[in-house]
Amino acid sequence: xxxxxxxxxxxxxxxxxxxxxxxxxxxxxxxxxxxxxxxxxxxxxxxxxxxxxxxxxxxxxxxxxxxxxxxxxxxxxxxxxxxxxxxxxxxxxxxxxxxxxxxxxxxxxxxxxxxxxxxxxxxxxxxxxxxxxxxxxxxxxxxxxxxxxxxxxxxxxxxxxxxxxxxxxxxxxxxxxxxxxxxxxxxxxxxxxxxxxxxxxxxxxxxxxxxxxxxxxxxxxxxxxxxxxxxxxxxxxxxxx
Length: 241
Fold this sequence. Notes:
alpha/beta
């Protein structure tokens, strides 16, 4: 299981939101590069970077900050937020990003997802952000009528191998994860699932590992010190008996 430390960018700064609410923002660093280096030094093998401004307006907005992170760390990064065209995907990948996360566009234009997978293969992953079982779009500010399971099946049919599934109700709340919902989606869809939302301690990491989840994104817990990233990574890399 891979642990992905999250770096959420807004106005070039490293921030965290509560349940995706832009009015509930905490700025943790004016220097995302230093934050990226910190997580790398603690053993992170992959970083999860979200362009919050991009997600809100519908096109990448924090390319300079993303490029600086790439120039600073040696580990790969994945980037999401406002990537809604093939040209956007190409622009992000040209920076040296390992994986591009498509979100809202998967709800609105599944054929574009299929086209992206055909062109870029496993460099394309899709994020499903859910509220009460339905998919949220456009920086989580709008809810759709599309059910999570329904979208997941379409995504896999389009060729996507990995889905990042975020439980919005728990995001930024440090309330613990429900490993069962991630495990069920993994079984229903046949995709690898990266869990996101609510991780608060090492027990959550153990529960997700036991559920054979592919990866987990950790955010607020590592910024507040509630979760020891080094210890979490050690648990994630333990061989199963």
